[in-house]
Design goal:
Length: 164
Amino acid sequence: MFASFYPRSKHAAEVLEMINLTDHRDKRVKSLSGGQRQRLAIGLAMISDPQIIFLDEPTTGLDPQARRNIWDIVLKLKELGKTTILTTHYMEEAEKLSDRVCIVDQGRVVTLDTPAALIDRLTKEREVRLSFQDGDDCVVRRSGRFVRHGRHGGDAQERAVKAA
């Protein structure tokens, strides 16, 4: 039915395979789980084979497995050369799925950059220092790593420290 709304559309079987719902093709929507319904919604958005897809918080309220299934679909869309505009409150999701992240606060763009650049900038602004009881060393967490400095946090060369 949805394919009939568009002058050009993908075949339903191709879309069902892409969203991993082929085994559920004969089920009624009300019998699908929340994650399956969300995948179906993405599939319906894909039926017209658009170049740009808008997904508004597609993983909110889903269990971890269903969330990963949505991530796989978004990554497939990326492989197909589709542009996906995704809204999310989950920074891990933005980091895994995005080439660029735009942070908006009260309708205004606060920043726009790559996930790695944003994480690097934000972690440097929130650097955590730990001093050991003997005072010989301190550990600094920067860019998601623990780094050990020389005596009393001096300028000794940094090296990665495995977090226990």
